[in-house]
Amino acid sequence: MSKVVLKGLSKSFGDVNVVNNIDLEIKDHEFLSFLGPSGCGKTTTLRMIAGFDMPTTGEIFIGERLVSSVEKKIFVPPEERNVGMVFQNYAVWPHMDVFKNVAYPLKIKKTGAEEMKERVMKVLSMVKLTGMEKRYPHQLSGGQQQRVALARALVMEPDVMLLDEPLSNLDAKLREEMRFEIKDIQRRIGVTIIYVTHDQAEAMAMSDRILLLHNARVQQLGTPKDLYERPENQFVADFIGLINFLKIDVTEREGRMMASFPSSPETPPFEVNPENTGKSSEGGFVFAIRPENVKLVSPDSSSIRGKVTKKVYLGNILDYRVALGKEEIRVEASSGEEFELGQTVGLRFESYVLFK
Ligand code: ATP
């Protein structure tokens, strides 16, 4: 079993609280990302799991084993936690060839020569570096060096792998390739991975679940789809993908929830789904809608009308800006009728979320 459990985990440096009361269970064989802007506490949380930082309060379990508890005065040192780590600056040793780089942790553990060779060759094949044992890091591409670092972490057969922005030194194309490779290795060997990134596309592409952090606090925990389609607050909606935020006023009329835009008094009220307004069903809300969920139609087919102010052809989509009263809405259209600059268009809102 290689689940990881965090209970009431907090960390303060002096009187600055950088991780605030995280409760989380990372399942066996799960790929979970810590995502959030710079300084939100991702690395600090990872370092506490690895055993490089002592929590201020709370407990950490790896498998069934309690490895860190302030209250019970338990602290298992990093080398006894059986976790593999790969950091941002994946430091492979320049004076050692690939084999020696990967064998290094086994050498420290005084593993016999035969077993060492067998294990190194096995992980090199996993990361597709067979045949490159004798090369030195300067004879490898960035992506290959990255895989050496991964292999060095994997050779200890850890229950859990902790990866901190491991792709940040690579160019865009390699990053994307490595995403697939890491995900593939994880599937094949079934290791639990906790992955730190500030790149939402990376987290979306790789993760089973994402823990989105901001200001030391958990903003949402869920699958990439949950975060994209059902963001729990405005920060999450804004951080993941593109979204429009528009102020609306909601009032109940004859059992229907009617919304109007204060910035566009000429737009007639339109009905919003009462499920979206929650308990506090009347009053001011923020209407949040992704650009692909706004459909442009002919002005006769919708009472909500705007004017096209920008139009950019992006190959697979047309990226429009449409003025609606004093606000501007971004619209991404992948098919359907084309509209021109200055043209009056009808707007149709498909799935959206309302925030109080
Ligand atoms: P980044 O993406 O920039 O690495 P992060 O989310 O990983 O950010 P952390 O490295 O966990 O953020 O840092 C969280 C906060 O804690 C930051 O404000 C940072 O300055 C602070 N911090 C981290 N380590 C220390 C330390 N040893 N002493 C004091 N403050 C620290």
From TrEMBL:
Residues 4-240 form the ABC transporter domain. It comes from the Bacteria. One of its GO terms (molecular function) is ATP hydrolysis activity. Keywords: ATP-binding, Cell membrane, Membrane, Nucleotide-binding, Translocase, Transport. The keyword Plastid does not apply. GO terms for cellular component: ATP-binding cassette (ABC) transporter complex, substrate-binding subunit-containing. This is Fused maltose transport subunit, ATP-binding component of ABC superfamily regulatory protein. It comes from Mesotoga infera. The gene is malK.
